[in-house]
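subagent[fold] <- orchestrator: predict structure for attached chain, return tokens only, no commentary.
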Amino acid sequence: MTHIFELVYLVVAVSLISNFGCINAARNNKYVTCGSVLKLLNNDYRVRLHSHDVKYGTGSGQQSVTATEVQEDVNSHWAVKAATGKHCERGEPIKCGDTVRFHHLSTNKNLHSHHFQSPLSGNQEISAYGDEQGSGDTGDHWMVVCSGDSWQRSLPVKLRHVDTDAYLSVSGRTFGRPINGQMEVVGVSNPYSGTDWTAAEGLFIHQSEADSVPRHTEL
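subagent[fold] -> orchestrator:
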């Protein structure tokens, strides 16, 4: 019986040590990776990219995308995925120049743009789009514009819409009801106006431990 208890203790101890190693490895990961779930923070306006089941009353009539000052809102979670029809390995760092999709977890839509005017400022509209399976089209594709080799979590990036060349931005204007106080998210041609975004809170998957333990920061 003593031998059995010693064996169980050994198995538990090894498991704990292994998990601790995985957690430390994940904490050392400094890149945004394929499969990560994150919140995108606009550097100029200090608001997080957000969506919800509220449609625009003008333009495309698709699901609206806004930005919120509320850090804890669950409607600000976006999963980083490969472009439609492409594949990226879970935990693989997103490289500068890669084309990705941002999948909105709460509503199963993709961050999207097209040649419609935004409702408040008349810039390019940003919406959330896709069917019940979360599938959309090339309007969901965004190029990660950054310096260096890969998207580092601590550094800002720009997100350029592949179909229209517009940069994801915040106009500085705020909505009234039913999304009172939330800011308008737009596409702009000028890459220097409200176009820097940083990976804030999230679940960041480490490549070598992609099937084990994700790096978790407060959501």
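orchestrator: received. Logging for downstream: The radius of gyration is 20 Å. The first helix runs from residue 2 to 27.
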